[in-house]
Amino acid sequence: MKSSSTNYFSCLFFLCLLLFVFVDSFEEQKNLKKSEFPDGFLFGTTTSAYQIEGAFLEDGKGLSNWDVFSHTKGRINNGDTGDIADDHYHRFQEDVELMHSIGLNSYRFSISWSRVLPRGRFGKVNFAGVTFYNELIDSLLLKGITPFVTLNHHDHPHELEEKYGGWLNPIMQEEFSYFAQICFSSFGDRVKYWTTINEPNMFAEMAYVRGVYPPARCSPPFGNCSAGNSDAEPLVAMHNMLLAHAKAAKLYREHFQPKHGGLIGIVVHSFMYKPLRNNDFDRDAANRAVLFTAAWVFDPLVHGDYPPEMRKYLLDALPRFTSDERKLIKDSIDFMGINHYGTLYAKDCIYSSCVCSNSSCIAGGDHPIHGYLITLAEKDGVSIGEPTGMSRFFVVPNGMEEIVDYMKKRYHNKPMFVTENGYASLNPTTAQADELQNDTKRVEFHKSYLASLARAIRKGADVRGYFIWSLMDNFEWTSGYELKFGLYYVDRATLDRVPKLSAKWYTDFLTNNSLNGEETGKLITFKYSSQANYLSDK
Known about the structure:
By secondary structure, the protein is an alpha/beta fold. 41% of the residues lie in helices and 16% in strands. Pfam families: Glyco_hydro_1.
C-alpha cells in the first residue's frame, strides 16, 4: 500500500511538473518581445537566387546546374522549374517594399553565380547581372535594411559541371575564389556580412549521397543513380567546398576586410539530435550525428581539421588536409551561420540492427558516411514533435536552445547567426488559399523557436541575428512549389504577394505590438496586371 501511494504521488508530482513547464513555456512565448534580444540584433528573412529570381536566361545569364536539372523529366515535383520562380529579378523593388513594410532590419539573399559569371572563368563578367545586385543592395540600404549576402546557395554555372565535374574537382576552389573576388570588388563597399557557401553539408548529402540534387550522383542503398559513390564522393565534394571557402575568406581578409570592415562566415544545416533509447549507444549516436553533419563543416574551419570521430569511422576515405591547408582553413570564419528546422532521434547501428520503416528515416545506417547511425522522428509510434509539411521537419522548439548551446561550447562561443528557421505548410492541395494565409501554426512555430533562442542568449550564447525562411513562398527544390514556407503567399497564376498572418505577427513583434486582441499593423499587398503594377493596403 505504501509503494502504491508513493507511485501515485510521484506520478502526480511529474504531471504537475509537466504542467508547470507547459504553462511557463506558453507564458514565455506569449510575452516574448523584441527587447529581449541584444541591441543591434538582426531580424530578417532569407531567400536564395534560384528559388525566387526567375529570368533564367535574361540579360546575359548563363545556365546553372539547377536550370538544367529542373528541366530533366521526373526530377522535380509536378515538373516545376525556377524559370520564372517568384520573378524577383523584375520585381525586386516591390519585394524590398514588402520587407520594409514588415520592419526587417536585414535581408539574407544569395548571388546567382551564373548571372554574374555565366561561364565561370571561361567567360567575361556579365555586367547586367552585377547591375541587378547593385540595384538590389542600394534599394535595401535606402530602406535601412542590412544586406546579408550568400555567395553560393546550391547553384553554379552548368558549364563548370560539364567541364570539371563540379565540386568533385579541386579546380572548383579556384573558380569559386574568382567568383568571390568579383563579388567582393563589386559589392563589398556596401555589404558587411558575407557567407561563402550555404549548407555545404546538406548539398553534399543531397547531391552526392542521396543523388536528388544535381549532379544526381549516388550508389545503393542511398539511391538509384546512373553513377556515383555515396560512401566517398560527398567527402571529396565537401573537402573542395571547405578549401574554396578558406581561399575566398583569405582573399576577403587580406584585400577587402581592412577597407570595408565586414565579416565573413559559412552556413550549415543542423538538426539537433536526441538518443532514441536511454542507453550509452544511442547517446553516442546522437553526438556522432552532430559531428557528421555540422561539425563536419565547422571543426575544420575553427579547429583546423575534421572531427576525430569522423576519422575513426571513415578512415582513409576521409580526405586529409596538408599542413599548409590546415593553416589556411583554421579560424577562417568570423561567425557561424546555423540553419535549424527541427530535432530528430538518433539510433546507434554499430551495436544494434537498424531498419528504416518510415519516411523520416534515411537508409544506410550501416555505412560509415552517416557515422553508423540512423536518424528518425518516431519513437514507439509517437512523433518527436508536431509534423510539418516536410517529412523530416518536426516542431521541437527546445532544439533551438540545445543546438545553439552545443555550438557555443564546442566553438568557444564564436558569434552566431540563425540564418534560417522556418515552418513548412502541409500539402497546399488540401487547403484553400485563404486557409494558407491564416497560418497560425507558422506563427506559433516562430514564437516558440524565438523564445528558445532567447533562452540560449540569456545563458550567454553570442547570437547576433535571426532570419526566417522565407520572405515568400518559392521554388522549394525537388518539392517545386508545393511546399510553402513564406510569410507572403505567392499566387502562382498572378505572382501576387499576399501577406499571411505570420507576416502580420512578425511586423507586430518587431514593433513590440501584439496579436493578442490588438489591431495588427498594416502591410502591403502587391498585385500585378498586364497593364501595370499597383499597391493596395492590407
